Each structure stands twice: as structure tokens, then as C-alpha cells.
Amino acid sequence: MPSLTLNMNALRWNLSQMPRLEQSWNFSFMPVLKMVACHPAVVDAVKQAGYRHYGAAEVDEPLFWKNESTPDTSAPDDRPVLISLPPLHRADEVVRLFSRSPADSVEALDALDAAAERRGSDVPPHDCIVMLDLGDMREGIPIEHSDEFFHSVANRFKRLNLTGIGVTMGCLHGACPDAIAMNELARAAARAQAILGRTLSLVSLGGSIFWDWWAEHHGEFACPPGCRVELRIADPILLGYDSYHEKASAGGTFRRDLFKLDATVLEVTERNLRPPRVLALNGQGEIARLTRTGLRRRALLDCGILHTDVRQLKLDVPGAEIVDFSGNYTILDVTDCAEDFRPGKTVSFVPGYWAVAQSFRNPMVPKYCVSCA
Question: Smallest Cα–Cα separation from 22: which of 224, 241, 209, 236?
């Protein structure tokens, strides 16, 4: 079984870069913690850095690290923000656990409003942002239909507060923000305010593909009066680099040494590799093709697709190479490696975004939060 370690000092350093950038780039930062499934140690670090809110991707993430019967004791303003569309049948949980949620249908807004009304008037109304689609074609109302939608929901709700609009880019089709899309968004935000007859408090931009665009173009976005721009993003603080372009994140010296995944060598064997005489689909449902044949030295590790996204693991050991993986195992070719690979040896990998996310959601993978230099 592999284990995952988070360097808390690196996380704190990356968080410390944000206030200066918020001021100089004129935005509000929303730390998105779906990569770490809202782990309590990360939440504490975020709050200690001065951020009362953080983004969660699933309704169950605030409950993941505690028994579901545990009552919600967060102050209303300290509860997390749901960043994914909520299931309508869980509207009561959403308004109890989260201070804000997104929606892109009248049905969802009605369900959240009814749930907020059931909570009673002694708690604040539930905040909601309306999601628009700027071209990534995942969630959100197509921006050309946004006027019609806002007309349909004006003055409709009793305990639901439409605080702004939100967009997500880069996550499905890789659509990137550009001048045309952002000008459309600014116009849609202004029209929404006119239709609703009041000021919206924010325009929320996510995923992390917005970071470098905002760094370069923040002075060009015509945000409606009274509105602020929120960047709901993970990469700069949790990865330290731009995962969309595999380069350093703009604006600061962000640390990249946040995570390492340790696995244990189970066996080291010299095998005469040759294609099977009769071939079927392998455990991943694919045709496995040997890229190297003949006598090769292989190490078998206790880390497989049951534990993490093995394709996102990077190994910095000269001469060693990840060549395959199975349910419980990763296989290294160590034929040309000078290091002494033997059973019991610990091998450390640098995991990517989805490797970390999958490991944090696997309760059998131990997680260690340590303060490393």
C-alpha cells in the first residue's frame, strides 16, 4: 500500500503569495480543495492564511473526514463553497453544509430556495451563483441564452440570494479564455444586473486555466460596477505550477514540492519478456503491447490503479522507468538502473493533480501532513 505525504511548509508558502497578487491584480482568491478532498489540515492552513471560504467539489467532501452524524458547527460565513452543480435531491444538505452553491437551471434554483426556506428565517439566506458557458461546453447556460434565463428568475426566490455569475473553462474541451469570450462575459454580467434590478457582487472564474490569463489581462476586463472578480483555483497553491501548460504559474515563486507518493518494492526479478502465445484484453480492458523484449530486470511495487492514477506518477531515478501497472502494482524496468532495487526498498514518486486527487479519496492510502524544509 503506498502512502502520500503533503509538505505543509510548501503549502503555507504558496498561500502566502496570494494577498500581494490579489491586491496588484484586483481579484479575490477562492482556494479550491477538491484535489485534496478538503482534508482538514489543508482547510486549517487555508483559514490560517486568512481565507474563510474554500471550494469543495462534492456534497460529501465536508463529511469525508468525519462521521456523517457530526453536526455542522461552522459559523455561516465560514462554511465551504460548493463549486459543482448540486444534485436536486440533496438540496437540504447543500444549504446546510455550504454557504454558496452554483446552479444553471430554474429547477435547481427552486429546489435550493425551498431547502433554504425549510431551514427557517433564523439563518442567513443561501447564496447562489448562476453558471454560464463560455465555450467549454460542460456546465452552464449558453451565454447567448443568459438574458432569457435571468428574466425567468427575476424576483422569483424567497430565501435564495443570487450573488453573481460563474464560468468554468479548460476542464472538458480545453477552451481557453480570450478577449472575445471575456467581453461577452462582461456584457452578460451587466445585462444580468439590469434584468435583476440590482448589483451582483461577483463574477467567479474557474479552473486554473484562468490564472495566467488574469495575470496578463486583468486590467482589460470590464467588471460591472459593484462587482468583484473571484478566481476559484487550485494549481498555484497545491501544485505550484500551471497543469494546463506544464509551466510555472505566473506572479510568484511558487513551490512545487508539495506532494510525494511512497511505494514499497515487493519483488525484483529478471524476466525473459516475450509476447504471450494467446492474447486477451488485460486488466485495464486493453491490449498490452510489450515495448521491450528479452532479458529485463523488473521491480514490482505495491502501488496500482486501485490506489492512484499511476499514469500521473513521475519517477526521478536515473535508469528506472515505469513500464506497466495493474490493480495493485506498478512495474518498473530497472535493467539500466545503478541503484540497488530489492524487496523492502522505498521508491518515491512525484504525483500529478489526478494522482493526488485519487489517493486522497482512497481511505486505505495513508496521508501524512508534515512540515518539511
Answer: 236
Tens digits of per-residue pLDDT, 221-257?
Answer: 999 999 999 999 999 999 999 988 888 999 989 999 9
What does the H/E/C string look like for the chain?
A: CCEEEEEHHHHHHHHHCHHHHHHHHCCEEEEECHHHCCCHHHHHHHHHCCCCCCEECCCCHHHCCCCCCCCCCCCHHHCCEECCCCCHHHHHHHHHHCCEEEECCHHHHHHHHHHHHHHCCCCCCEEEEEEEECCCCCCCEEHHHHHHHHHHHCCCCCCEEEEEEEEECCCCCCCCCCHHHHHHHHHHHHHHHHHHCCCCCEEEEECCCHHHHHHHHHHHCCCCCCCEEEEEECHHHHCCEECCCCEECCCCCCCCCCEEEEEEEEEEEEEEECCCCCCCCCCCCCCCCCCCCEEEEEEEECCCCCCCCHHHEECCCCCCEEEEECCCCEEEECCCCCCCCCCCCEEEEEECHHHHHHHHCCCCCCEEEECCC
Class (C level, CATH) for 18-241: alpha beta
pTM of the model: 0.93
Query: Are the C-beta atoms of residues 331 and 263 closer than 8 Å to each other?
Result: no
Closest CA to 6 of 356, 362, 272, 365: 356
Domain boundaries, the chain: 18-241, 259-370
d(CA 294, CA 193): 69
Residue with cell 447543500: 94
Residue with the three cell numbers 455561516? 76
Which residue do the cell numbers 425551498 mark? Answer: 114
pLDDT tens by residue, 36-81? 999 999 999 999 999 999 999 999 998 888 753 444 445 557 899 9
CB 299 within 8 A of CB 331: yes
Which of 216, 224, 147 has its CA nearest to residue 183?
224
Pair type for strands 259-273 and 3-7: antiparallel
Of 105, 83, 104, the closest CA to residue 94 belongs to 83
Q: Which residues pair with 289 in a beta bridge?
A: none
